[in-house]
Each structure stands twice: as structure tokens, then as C-alpha cells.
Amino acid sequence: MTYVFDPLVPRPIDQPTEVPLGAPLSAEQLVALDEAKIFVGPADPADRPEWRARLRQWRADAHERHSYHGRAYDRPEAAWAAGCHTVAQVWLWDELLYSFEEHRFTPERFLADAHQRFGGLDAVVLWHAYPVIGLDDRNQWDFYRDVPGLRELVETFHSAGVRVFVDYNPWDVGTRRGEDDAAELSAVLADFGADGVFLDTLKKADPALVEQLERGRPGVVLEGESKLPVERIEDHSASWAQFFADSPVPGVLRSHWYERRHMQHHVRRWHRDHTEELQSAWLNGVGVMVWEVVFGVWVGWSQRDAATVRRMVTVQRAAGDLLRDGEWTPLAPLTPEAEAAGVYASRWELGDWTLWTVVNRGDSDYLGPVVDGPVIDLFADGRVPARGISALLRVSEGAAEPSWLSRVATLPHDPDARFPHRLATRVVREPTLGRPEDDAVVVPAGPYVLTVRYRGRETGMYQGAPYVDEWKPLPPRLHDARTLQRDGSLASPVAVAAAEVTNGQFAEFLAAAGYQPVEPHRFLAHWADGLVEDEPVTFVDLDDARAYCAWRGGRLPTEDEWQLAGETGGLRRGTPAVWNWTESEHSDGRTRFVMLKGGSDYRAEGSEWYVEGGRHAPDYSVKLLLPGLGLARGATVGFRCAWDVTR
Questions:
Q1: Long-range contacts of 111-115 (CB under 8 A, 24+ apart)
Q2: Whole-prediction pTM value?
């Protein structure tokens, strides 16, 4: 296949913007610079004073053209955003945040890990619906409101000094409808006491939405996913710098230069080397999005990058006044030796203190002088580490040193840039001893090879990331039809039930076995409207299905066994058709998932981000991330049993 773009190379839209030099900027040039993501840093140090003057000219002109007043940043309830340097995007059911064994949230474990590796977090985005939404008619608001204990989870984060964003999916138009999005989102903010809204897939919110959210939650912080238009910096306190490519000589982030209180978070979700975005954040006095599990895919940060974050945020929190209110000189003058080694710095001056935030673009440690005159090496490295950062402080003669110096000096650089791989392992179940149903489809023992069809989603499939070091996966590399090959061997024949378990059969099981789930939330919720005996039982999760099959002397079929039986043509589908659980539970220690088979009659229309609905052939699989606390139970997933056939 021929692609119209190289996914490993930044697209033109990702590239930084040159600032014309040689003359004052024209009106047309000033307007054109509004479209920048990053202003290119000049390679020649002699050009930098004029470059800084042109940046100041653009800012003053843009403020006047857009009648900028900055009142949104004067809201006391939103002041925290200006110091929100680290945000983690976390799936509610990430195994650091939720224990499937204990059936409870574990924020203490999540926060301890973040503190140890990243120096702690300033905020979290609690991701909830995608990529499981669309499996049934639950809308994005249901995936928040139906979570037991979510309000308490938010309160625990608040007690730890961590702010909470909820996620808004404007593309959710095909699930069940409630009130309009503005009313629903306002209610979610109020219900859970959240501090901000992440605007999924959006650069900005509609002004009417901003107004309604502010009325309901004064000081709400809105953060879009991409380049924020200059005129909307006015009412959006934060924005992602997602897939922003920097220049070889580090540049200046346009939005933060326009308004120093506007917080940006660098993020490249599929990259394994975060050096460039971290260095840009350090030089610009902004933050990063720490995102280690992208919709079920492990993209963990190296020890080097985590240590860099830890060093950055400790200084940024301690010296916040300098970074927000001090005189900022990007690409500040350095010694010729430092410049030649690929070392760059921003200078921040306020009162008796001058801070240099320093980066080393090179692959070797720099041991020479960075600036002229005496300075305090805040990290006590005596060097600027290769592809790392440093911080220098000068205190005016006779002035007091900062009280936080000792805390910063205990944060060493870690050179280990290896990717911390994880493997998803299958949860293995014991063989069964029961007698199969008479019409079960028997799959013979021995080796097999299968072709599995699936849709390329951000979830990936069994192992690894679907995109590595790619800038922004686009069609035809996203949501495209794909295949993979699976092979294995059955030690003995396996009999797979021809039909799915019905409501009536499950009711017999409950009466006979007295089964009660450990977590009862949503269990058999559809029976409240009356039991239709011959329809497939739904609103059961993996454990419920396993319990029934064990009572019948069987187990769930694996996804391969289900496909092998289905390809004989012997499996029947109930009415309505529902997806089938399979014995395919995997975990890499952060995400649990299963493979669903069969498809369903339900289909959510209107967005490619939904789980694909409709009936599917036996060779088709969907990877489903497992929610906890009963949310895996839904109207479109049932099951059938399987038995190991003894000779």
C-alpha cells in the first residue's frame, strides 16, 4: 500500500512556523503568525535579539486585534491551571487505579507510583467511555454516572492536591439520548465535583458551551486536544500541544507566549522518546501530559524521561512565580562553548533571582560553563546531561537563597532510555470434566491455523502498540480492515455449545446454585422489565458466565475455539444477536481485555470512534477493554459454554 504521508515524519501542519526577520512585521505577517503552533528558534545567535523583538511585536498586535483582556485568568477558582504542569490521562480501570481482585479503586497505589517516578501529578483526566462506548446504547454520561464510588474517587484526588478533568466526547451522537450535551456535561461536573473538561477531538469549545459550563461551575478549566485559536485563549485556560514538532534550535510556544498563565501540555502519545517535548516544556515553562496507557495499549515512559519530568516539575512548582511573572528571555545568551555543544536556555528574572532552564540537545554530557558569572547548579550535576535538562540560579548579592534548594538537589538524572516493555498474559483456567450438550460442535484435537479479521483501532490487539513513534495515525492507518494469523494446538477435542445460554437457563442456574456475584451492580438489569426465557442472557460479566459454565461442568470457549467451531457452520445465533464472551482474558498489569466474537444486532451510528456493531462472521474479533464494578455487564453481550472432551 502506498501512503500519501510518512507516519514517522511530522506533517506540514505539525511543523513550527518561521518568524520573518530583517524588518518590522507587516499586518499580513502578524496575522499569519496567529496560525503558528511553535515559533521557530533562529540558528544564528546574532538573529535572536531581533527574533525576540518580533515575538513581542506579534503579541502586542495580537492582543490589540483580539481585544484581549485576560479576565478568564483572573478567576480565583481557575488559578490552579497556570501551575498545572503534569497531567496524567488515565483509564478508570487502569490496574494501578483499580483492583479487579478487590473490586475497588486504588488511588493510593496510583498516586504513590506517580510520586515515585514523576514527582507527583497536578491533575488527572479520568477517561471513561472510549474505546468501549458503542458496544450497547449507553452514552458517554452513563459511563460516568453508573460508576459506583466515582464521587469518592474524585474527592480522594482532591485530598491529595490533584485536580480532576472529566472527558467530553462531542462525537457521541448515536447512543441513547438524554438532555443536550451542555446540560449533561454541566450536570456531570456538578455531580462529581470535577475541576475541568478535556475536549476530546476538539481544538476549542463552542462559546455557548463555555458560557453554560461557567455558569454551572465557576472557574471550570477547558482544555482542547490541539492548537487553540489565538482568539480562544481568552476563555480556555489550557490546551494540549499535541504532535507539535519543535525546530532544531528550540522555539517558543505561541499560546503560552501570548498569555503566560495559559498552560500547555506537550503530548506525543505514541512516541517512546519524549526528549523533544520535555525540553520544549522546560524552556517554555509549561507542562506535559503523562500518558502511559493509550486506550489499553502500554506506551510507558523510560526511566530517563520519567526522571526528567521529576526534575522539571519540582523546580516548576517551587519557582512558579518566576515562570509566570518573571521577565522571560527565550534562547538567552550562553557561552560560545555551550552554544557549540547544542545547549540552549530560557532566562527568567524576578526580584533577586534569575533562573536559567537549560537543555542539552546533544548526545554527550556538556561539562563546560553555560553562562558567565557565578551560579548555583540546582541539580548539583556539574553538567548538562546528554538529551537532558539542567537548572541554574543566580541570587543577587545579599539576598536570601530559596528555601527549596535542598529538595531540588536530590533529583538525579537517569540515563536509561530503554523502553519498559510489558507483555499481556492470558488468564489460564482449569480443564473441565462435565458432559457436553448433545448438539455441541466438536473441534478436533491437534494443531490449527486461523486468520482473524479486525478493525485497526487505537486499542491494538494482543501485544504491543499499533503505532510506534508515529505522529498522528490517520486513515488508511486508522480504523482500517486488518488481519492477523493465530496458530496453536488443542491437547484434546473441545465441544462448543451450538447455542448461547438463555435467560431461562440462567434462571435455572440461579435457583439451583444460589449464585450471587461478588459485585452485583448491573447484574441481570434487563430482568427488571420481565424475563424473556428464550432470548440470550445478557447483563452478565465474565465471572457470571464462568460461574454458569462451571455449574454445567464446562467453561467458556477461547476465542480460537469459538472461531474454529463457528467456521464449521454449526453455531446458532439467538434473537437478538449478541456478542459472546470468550475465555480470552489478558492482563499486562495495567489493562485487562478480552476478545468478543459473533457481533450483535445493535449498532451505534454516527461516529467511527464507536465499537463496531452488527453481526460478524466467525473470523471477526473485537478487543474489549474490561471495565470493573459491574460496568462490563451490558445489553449486547452474552455467552455460550464449552467442554473439554475426554477420550
A1: 111/157, 111/160, 111/162, 114/88, 114/290
A2: 0.97
